Amino acid sequence: MPELPEVETVARGLRAGVLGRRLRAVALPRPAFFRGAPARLAALEGAACTAVRRAGKYLVLEFTAAAGARWQLMLHLGMSGRLRLHPAGAARAPHTHAIFVWDDGRELHFSDPRRFGRLALAPAPAEGFAPELAVAAGAEPLEISEAGFLARFHGRNAPIKNALMNQKLLRGLGNIYADESLFRAGIHPCARRLSGPRLARLRLAIRAVLRQAIAAGGSSISDYVDSDGQPGWFHLRHRVYGRTGEPCRGCGAPVRRIVLAGRSAHFCPRCQRR
Predict the structure, then answer these.
(1) Residue 140 falls in the annotated catalytic set
(2) Exposed (0-12), middle (13-18) or buried (19+): which is 195, by Cβ within 10 Å?
(3) Given 12, 21, 192, 263, which residue is catalytic?
(4) Of 32, 102, 189, 225, which sees the most CB atoms within 10 A?
């Protein structure tokens, strides 16, 4: 599933491509892809895109209609979703479930072979995100203060890898960047009740990993590409994720993989301690 760096990369591409443009039409080849009554999307026709925001793994496009009504369109890429900008009249890729036609003729296609993606629309509140969009409520990893991070994670008895992936605590982290951040902080994924100094180190590791991954355009493990169809290359810099049995880039010990709450966790048994 695309995580924060991949979604941020897509958001930046969309800001460059559609911010300020008006939406001419919306087509839903698969109406069930939209959460709610598809007819509601007609409210966006002629509306201007005034913001492209990211909340964890969610994208939210904000629109203002000619009559002044404001809307928020939520897009979640799920496991295999892609948002691609195409020239006018471009052929649709298989499993294209939504098409947004802009005033310059270009089209934004939302394709999703595995169909775990989501699309929803709601009136925009005065601030924040509309509750109907069900955007994850956790803090943003790149914005949270040290005090805020410690308040969420200090004293928790759950394995730290599981806690990091709880979107109600911290939104945007998944398997890839939780594993990579824990490695850089020297913390075992099963560690519990971390001390304040270890949590402070982990927060800095998360921020550093996410910033590096965003600069690299994200990690292209399987389906992910940005809004221009380009893959990211941060996967070439992974130190533990997906490297089971390979030598640790720090000490040479074989990278191990275990399963926590049904999800993989990759780590170095020497460099990461409980």
Answers:
(1) no
(2) exposed
(3) 263
(4) 189
Q: Of 2, 38, 141, 189, which residue is the catalytic one?
A: 2
DSSP-derived letter for residue 235 is G
Residue 193 CA, chain-centre distance (Å), reads 27
Task: Give the strand pairing for 263-267 and 256-260.
Answer: antiparallel
Among 57, 118, 171, 198, the active-site one is: 57
Residues 44 and 157 in one domain: no
Pairing mode, if any, of strands 70-76 and 118-123?
Answer: antiparallel
Catalytic residue, chosen from 3, 6, 8, 62, is 3
Q: What digits encode the pLDDT tens for the residues 42-52?
A: 999 999 999 99
Q: Is the pLDDT of residue 226 over 60?
A: no
Task: Specify whether 263 is catalytic.
Answer: yes
pLDDT of 223 > 80? The answer is no
Q: Token digits for 37?
A: 């009554």
How far, CA to CA in Å, does 112 sit from each of 1, 17, 45, 78, 228? 12, 21, 23, 8, 16
The CATH number of the domain holding residue 187 is 1.10.8.50
Whether 107 is catalytic: no
Q: Answer whether 209's CB lies under 8 Å from 164's CB.
A: no
Q: What percent of the chain has pLDDT over 70?
A: 95
Q: Report the CATH number that the domain containing residue 124 is assigned in CATH.
A: 3.20.190.10
Structural domain of 85: 4-133
Average pLDDT (106-120) is 90
Considering its fold, how many domains does the chain have in total?
2
- Is 168 part of the annotated catalytic residue set? no
